[in-house]
Automatic annotation (TrEMBL):
<dbReference type="GO" id="GO:0005737">
    <property type="term" value="C:cytoplasm"/>
</dbReference>
<protein>
    <submittedName>
        <fullName>DUS19 phosphatase</fullName>
    </submittedName>
</protein>
<dbReference type="GO" id="GO:0008579">
    <property type="term" value="F:JUN kinase phosphatase activity"/>
</dbReference>
Length: 92
């Protein structure tokens, strides 16, 4: 079994796959983001945007809280701003 230090030493950027991320803005405009070296390249997608953009605005509160450790909770900003949720998990 390799140690973490050995895996880090053997890491090669050349083995990483190039990633492309499609972003749909609130207006429905679509762009493609790719990294080239240390620079972010943004280009408009060639396909026409679908009316409405396919973006669904979610205004409902996300009050889920995950207990990682008894003293470490993981949740959204909605949960952090909800006093009842914080009291339930004894956050002070």
């Amino acid at each position: 079994m390799h140690s973490l230090a050995q895996e880090i030493r053997s890491f090669s950027k050349a083995k990483l796959r190039q990633q492309r991320t499609r972003v749909t803005t609130l207006t429905g405009k679509r762009v493609i983001e790719t990294w080239r070296g240390a620079c972010l390249r943004v280009e408009e997608e060639e396909e026409e945007a679908v009316p409405g953009g396919g973006y669904v605005r979610d205004l409902s509160a996300d009050l889920q809280v995950g207990v990682v450790k008894p003293w470490l909770l993981l949740g959204s900003q909605d949960a952090a701003h909800d006093l009842e949720t914080m009291k339930k998990h004894k956050v002070t």
